[in-house]
Amino acid sequence: MDFDWSVIAGALPALFKGAQLTVLITVCGLVGGTLLGVAFGLMRAYGGRMLSSLGWAYVGLVRGTPIVVQVMFIYFALPGLIGLRVDPMSAAIASIIINSGAYIAEIVRGAFLSVPRGLAEAGLAMGLPHWRVLAFVVGPVAFRRMTPALGNQFIVSLKDTSLFIVIGVGELTRQGQEIMATNFRAVEIWTAVAVIYLLLIGVLTLGLRVLEKRMRIL
């Protein structure tokens, strides 16, 4: 079968629309996931027995189940439990927030605990309250150390958006499937989808590399 470039040209508007939705879900999900991950990561590292156990339960539950099961639960099962209909877009963003938050929590916990205790003790010796020591003394060093791992998680979460095809979210993979179902040109369509994913991840990787170089610990 000949490779028909005109098929890709005709499909690009719909694929770009799906790519925009993919980026939107990823950005919204990762902003919420980062906030959730930082909170639970600090709970795991410094929260005492009760808060640490709560963080451990959250991380264990999320990491022990696939994200596709999580989004199916949010979209199909949760409305039956709370009586509130969840639209596909909200379910997709919520699942990225919950899923990425668990992994980011472990990244944050490991980064903060990897900072030498003497640095925190020096801040406390200067009379700073504990929260200021974490935010302004330990935090900047920990953030530099967690940047590569965070970048990897961001890339994984971007690719995970393709799984939301199961609830009908019109992201990039869903758009590719719908176009392919009308013209049956699987080679051209899935090649275009793969290239767009590569471009998105390439831009994200480049941005993270620049950030990592700027924040490198000498």
Provide tags for this entry.
0% strand, 218 residues, 83% helix, mainly alpha, flat
What do these coordinates show?
The chain has helices spanning 5-46, 48-63, 67-82, 88-114, 117-125, 130-160, 172-183, 186-214. With 218 residues, it is mainly alpha-helical. The mean pLDDT is 90.
How much of the polypeptide forms β-strand, as a percent range? under 5%
Summed over residues and divided by their number, the pLDDT gives a mean of: 90
Radius of gyration equals 21 Å
Helix and strand content put the structural class at: mainly alpha
General shape: flat
Figure out the total of helices.
Answer: 8
Major sheet summary line: none
Q: Tell how many strands the DSSP assignment holds.
A: 0
Pattern of helices and strands: HHHHHHHH
| Helical residues, percent | over 70%
Unreliable spans: none
> Gap between N and C termini, in Å?
54 Å
